[in-house]
């Protein structure tokens, strides 16, 4: 009852956005203007606070080079390209995102990171990567994306399809807090309004369970914290899974 009451209070505060959504105005505005702007600003804070975890995570990328010595990398939900700085020199990167409106921020990030080779940018959802041939990449990267895909299991199936045998899936995702914690209580309170405002982002997904159920041969996952003040997305998981 307390969760429902607080959800209603939050919805009242966000009533203009709910009204715009009802009129069909919010979603196109969010995708084209608000979310790309917000995500680029949030990325600066998130990168500062998750830099240590990302440096440690992406240090393993070179271990998954193909026998020829090349590293072909596919990033799902590239956004404005905050991960480029962590990729090893010379790797070939294919960028994908369901939202084509990140181009400005993405171009800035590409210009700052000339040490990698950009193959292409594909407009594609994580659940449908049909433009990418099966078994064609050495590594797939996905950070802060599985919270908003429509089908987590479908996305992981596509990851496994495009990876070559012996390739790896690298992830850093915010997840549900412990169910007995106050943080989980507030995640439940914020859930509907947060999902509306931030383009489908779900606060209470237990993504580590989806990873455990996927058909990876080896899974390395660690629960960690990335401090983002005044947000309900502090609990994270980080790691990689091998096909």
TrEMBL record:
Recall the GO molecular function terms of this protein's record. S-adenosylmethionine-dependent methyltransferase activity
Tell me which domain of life the UniProt entry assigns to the organism this sequence originates from: Eukaryota
List where this protein forms a coiled coil: none
Q: Methyltransferase type domain spans which residues?
A: 74-171
Q: Name one Pfam family in it.
A: Methyltransf_11
Give the GO terms filed under biological process for this record. methylation
| Signal sequence range | none
Q: Which SUPFAM superfamilies match?
A: S-adenosyl-L-methionine-dependent methyltransferases (SSF53335)
| Protein name as annotated | Methyltransferase-like 7A
């Amino acid at each position: 009852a307390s969760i429902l009451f607080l959800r209603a209070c939050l919805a009242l505060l966000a009533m203009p956005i709910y009204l715009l959504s009802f009129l069909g105005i919010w979603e196109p505005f969010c995708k084209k203007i608000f979310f790309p702007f917000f995500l680029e600003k949030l990325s600066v804070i998130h990168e500062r606070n998750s830099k240590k975890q990302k440096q440690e995570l992406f240090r393993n990328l070179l271990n998954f080079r193909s026998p020829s010595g090349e590293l072909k990398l596919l990033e799902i939900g590239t956004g404005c390209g905050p991960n480029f700085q962590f990729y090893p020199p010379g790797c070939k990167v294919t960028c994908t995102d369901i939202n084509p409106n990140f181009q400005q921020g993405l171009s800035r990030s590409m210009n700052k990171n000339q040490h990698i080779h950009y193959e292409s940018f594909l407009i594609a959802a994580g659940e449908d990567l049909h433009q990418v041939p099966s078994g064609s990449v050495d590594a797939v990267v996905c950070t802060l994306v599985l919270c908003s895909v429509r089908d987590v299991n479908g996305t992981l199936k596509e990851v496994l399809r495009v990876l070559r045998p012996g390739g790896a899936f690298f992830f850093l995702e915010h997840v549900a807090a412990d169910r007995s914690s106050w943080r989980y209580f507030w995640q439940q309170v914020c859930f509907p309004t947060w999902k509306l405002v931030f383009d489908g982002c779900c606060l209470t997904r237990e993504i580590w369970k989806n990873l455990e159920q996927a058909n990876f041969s080896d899974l390395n996952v660690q629960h960690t914290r990335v401090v983002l003040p005044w947000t309900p997305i502090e609990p994270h998981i980080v790691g990689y899974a091998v096909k």
